[in-house]
């Protein structure tokens, strides 16, 4: 902007220079708030938030705080989500076993005026939030055993979040998502987790070897059962063949016996027929002989009668 247009024509010298400097100074104090920030401006009478989504707009003049009445101070805070990392934080379980954890949290400012009343700048807010998270992590972990902590990271993330949420409203801040327990490991000169992991590895190895042994045993038993089934089937097959062979031989023998019986019956029938024929012949011969004898007897009687009559 060309400030020379504000100098009244004809006015020269010191007055003009002072007016130009004053205008430049005023314009240099104009602030335009970035879209991802909020500026909380504190004057002698009130606190006002400036930013993209505030009711007071996103521009203001940052009058030096030493000026009476109009002087202000400001705090710059983000309106976007910001994260906080708690790395290698030393903690203890309920048995006072030491370990370190990595925790990650995500926050956003919900009430910039409240936040500005609690802190002087964003770094101070981060430090206070970090202290809150540390306290929540310490309290929750100290109420549980280390093995349970190692196995339930999502569960403890939920508990961290609940513990923290109860305090955040006092800072005008809220969590965006559950706080995450990223890692748990041994600290310096500590071997607790390593010992637990070694124990778990040995237990897994034992279970694996036991399972392998069981599987091998089951495989051997299955092979034996399969072989027995094959042998039994072979034996049954042989037995069936033997039975069929015996049955065939018996049938052959029966057929042979039936043939012999048939032959004998045929021979018997033939003999019976022959005997019948012979008997008929004998009867006929006997009848003939009888007839002959009768004839002879008649002839003899007739001869005797004739002789007797002759002797008379």
Index terms:
four-stranded antiparallel β-sheet; about 60% helix; alpha+beta; single chain; about 300 residues; rod-shaped; 9 strands; three-stranded antiparallel β-sheet
Describe the protein in words.
By secondary structure, the chain is of the alpha+beta class. The chain has helices spanning 14-28, 112-118, 122-141, 146-151, 153-168, 192-311; strands at residues 30-32, 37-42, 47-51, 59-61, 73-78, 82-92, 98-109, 173-175, 180-185. The strands form three sheets. Strands 6, 7, 8 and 9 form a four-stranded antiparallel sheet that branches. Helix 3 (122-141) packs across helix 5. It starts with 13 loop residues before the first helix and ends with a helix.
Topology:
Blueprint: H1 14-28, E1 30-32, E2 37-42, E3 47-51, E4 59-61, E5 73-78, E6 82-92, E7 98-109, H2 112-118, H3 122-141, H4 146-151, H5 153-168, E8 173-175, E9 180-185, H6 192-311
Antiparallel strand pairs: 1-4, 2-3, 2-5, 6-7, 7-8, 7-9
Helix pairs in contact: 3-5
Shape: rod-shaped
Content-based structural category = alpha+beta
Helix content: 55-70%
Strand content: 15-25%
Order of helices and strands: HEEEEEEEHHHHEEH
Biggest sheet layout: 4 strands, antiparallel
Instruction: State the end-to-end distance.
Output: 215 Å
Radius of gyration: 65 Å
User: How large is the count of helical segments?
Assistant: 6
Runs in which pLDDT lies below 50 for 5 or more consecutive residues are: none
């Amino acid at each position: 902007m060309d400030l020379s247009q504000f100098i009244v024509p004809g006015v020269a010298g010191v007055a003009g220079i002072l007016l130009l400097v004053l205008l430049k100074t005023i314009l240099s104090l104009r602030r335009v708030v970035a879209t991802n920030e909020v500026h909380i401006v504190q004057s002698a009478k009130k606190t006002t938030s400036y930013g993209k989504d505030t009711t007071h707009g996103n521009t203001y003049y940052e009058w030096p705080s030493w000026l009476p009445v109009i002087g202000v101070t400001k705090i710059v805070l983000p309106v976007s989500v910001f994260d906080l990392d708690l790395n290698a934080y030393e903690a203890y379980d309920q048995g006072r076993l030491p370990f370190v954890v990595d925790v990650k949290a995500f926050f956003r400012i919900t009430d910039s005026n409240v936040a500005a009343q609690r802190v002087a700048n964003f770094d101070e807010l981060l430090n206070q939030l970090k202290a809150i998270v540390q306290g929540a992590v310490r309290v929750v972990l100290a109420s549980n055993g280390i093995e349970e902590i190692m196995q339930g990271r999502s569960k403890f993330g939920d508990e961290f979040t609940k513990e923290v949420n109860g305090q955040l409203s006092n800072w005008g801040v809220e969590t965006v998502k559950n706080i995450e327990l990223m890692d748990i490991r041994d600290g310096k000169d500590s071997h607790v987790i390593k010992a637990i992991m070694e124990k778990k590895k040995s237990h897994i190895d034992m279970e694996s070897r036991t399972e392998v042994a069981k599987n091998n045993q089951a495989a051997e038993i299955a092979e034996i059962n399969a072989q027995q089934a094959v042998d039994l089937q072979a034996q049954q097959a042989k037995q069936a063949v033997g039975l069929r062979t015996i049955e065939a031989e018996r049938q052959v023998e029966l057929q042979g016996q039936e043939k012999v019986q048939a032959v004998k019956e045929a021979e018997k029938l033939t003999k019976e027929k022959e005997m019948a024929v012979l008997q008929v012949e004998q009867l006929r011969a006997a009848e003939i002989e009888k007839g002959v004898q009768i004839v002879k007897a008649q002839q003899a009687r007739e001869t005797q009668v004739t002789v007797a009559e002759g002797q008379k």
